[in-house]
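Our platform keeps sequence and structure together, in a single record for each protein. Such a record has a labelled line for the sequence and another for the backbone structure tokens. Nothing more is needed to write down the fold, since each code stands for a local backbone conformation. For reference, a complete record is included directly beneath this paragraph:
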Amino acid sequence: MQRVQVFRCVICGDPYIGFERPTNCPFCGAHEQYIIPSYAWRDTNKMELTDISRKNLESSLELETGNAEFYLCISKTAKSVEIRAMFKALSKVESEHASTICKILGTEKPTTGLKKELCAAMSEQEILKEAERRENRAVKLYNEFLKQATEPRVIEFFTALIEIESDHIDIVTKESSEPAPMEKEGNEKPPRDEELKKLDREDIDFYDSYSMYED
């Protein structure tokens, strides 16, 4: 009989309970190879950083924070329930990246909140194009930072981030390439009020949403 197990992500450090190892970390999106049995996990975030790695991590923190805020805005303002749900998940993943960067830097998590002005005037296609631009920029930067890194933990982190952000590119480009469903005149679907209410409920500060039980 299969028994439930506790796994832990090497990248973000968050634990996961399940019968099998997930294909991606539910919190930071890291690929399966970074998810290990909880008993084998060790904290590798405490280290001496070179000046270039510290500078690159600080730039990455700014980027991840900005993306998390932008995606959070979309999750609260987009008309499509599917788009709102997708970007709510992406916002939490990016905020988890920001949290992990702070652990490596040994700094406090930045405080931030919902900024509806970031995306309120954008159409759905503009939102998806901007998200794609942001993710492509992240992959390009992280490839450069990876080349400059010498610390094993920093190399591991940027390698994982490149994979995760590449996954995000696939998600947003797939969404932008799919035609919107056509509705017959006079047969519009009623708004899914309950789903929208669930997405609009007050969330815990998104930097702490997966970090309440950290060591």
In short: The helical segments are 51-77, 81-105, 124-148, 152-177, 193-200. The mean pLDDT is 86. The chain has two domains: 1-42, 45-178+192-200. Residues 17 and 47 are 29 Å apart (CA to CA).
